[in-house]
């Protein structure tokens, strides 16, 4: 039996990986002596619904003992606000009946009026019901509301946000909401120009990729099921990251292959499945205007990414930092995929031209020196120091892209300079002698390197919250340097044609 057969569903039972920090914050902020409503935010299939299902199953009965009626709903289940409000009323009454409480006739009458109410009256009748249950029976309402992103459509032509805000804000109703969504509630109510619901929720609680302790638990569960990943764990996390759904998809396929395939082989064999997942993630990021900033941070240059967007990507767990505070994607396979998509996302046309010319210039120079074997020559020539690791990364990127099904089918060759990082390109220029600059680029090496030093700072790899590099004047200076480099290289190619 494949224990990952439930992949894609809400994960419960033994397969559930507890998220203690997230769970504790939700409980503390919604069930403590001082409580309020919160928003739980995370990318698609990051485990938000699984966390909330776990809390619902764990706390439903104990909440009722504390006079809290806990409900769990998804906005995807409703076609209108009236339908939503009536269902809340029905579930409240069912919860009371399930616990054999005597329901006063007044509450029954209000519940019946809610059930029969037209769309315009449903909210008012629900408010009356909640108020009466709280006043007469002493029970307050706690609602987990999943797929809250759908509120953008369902609340589009009405006052839904204002009504929800009133339910949680008014002491007579005192409803606790846990809004579960991909987007922050502040983004949702801003789009509809609605009452400021987000202002009543405090800081969002983010569900992000697994941390190390959660990964330990994840692989312990796998081992107990007979799938020991100790010898493959590091390679798997580097390849696919700690994204819960991606890990489940990978493990599902690995188990199907009896755990006998290498990590890269499994990924390549089922690459289409993972590319679809990457496409879905990109669509969500693009919808939130975070895809271009993500591409800038990883590949450079950072020309219009804001501190706010950087913070959002950090909060969502979409970027991470290495030991040198350099920005990385959340998984190697995803970063390679993003690299293949750069041609489709023209987020910095001038920089793209500059980077292409930098690569072409080096290829021309190396071909002039070493002939058709230039690629093999420089690979061996720069097998030392920092160059060694940069060449290794470029070769790994080259391998990944060449085994991508699109490139494989097209037969197009990608050389080591095509997949070299911008940092590697600048490093290669730094070791060229002065005559190269004087004779070919018609610029002093010192001036060229000063420009590239600035661009290296700005292009992508910067320390956390370094606002200086995002200032307008810094980006304008970078644009000027890019123009100058493009001009000098273009003049060279025009001369030799």
Mean pLDDT: 87
Residue share in β-strands: 5-15%
Share of residues in helices: 55-70%
Shape field: elongated
Q: Which spans of ≥5 residues are poorly predicted at pLDDT below 50?
A: 461-465
Largest sheet: 5 strands, parallel
Structural class: alpha/beta
**How many strand elements?**
7
Radius of gyration: 28 Å
Distance between the termini: 66 Å
Q: What's the helix count?
A: 24
Strand order of the biggest β-sheet: 2-3-4-1-5
Element layout with pairings:
Layout: H1 20-31, E1 38-41, H2 48-65, E2 68-74, H3 81-98, H4 105-116, H5 119-137, E3 140-146, H6 151-154, H7 160-169, E4 176-181, H8 185-191, E5 205-206, H9 212-224, H10 233-240, H11 244-256, H12 263-269, H13 271-287, H14 291-299, H15 307-316, E6 319-321, E7 327-329, H16 332-341, H17 349-370, H18 374-381, H19 385-403, H20 405-410, H21 422-430, H22 434-441, H23 445-459, H24 472-496
Parallel strand pairs: 1-4, 1-5, 2-3, 3-4
Antiparallel strand pairs: 6-7
Helix pairs in contact: 3-4, 3-5, 4-5, 17-18, 17-21, 17-24, 21-23, 23-24
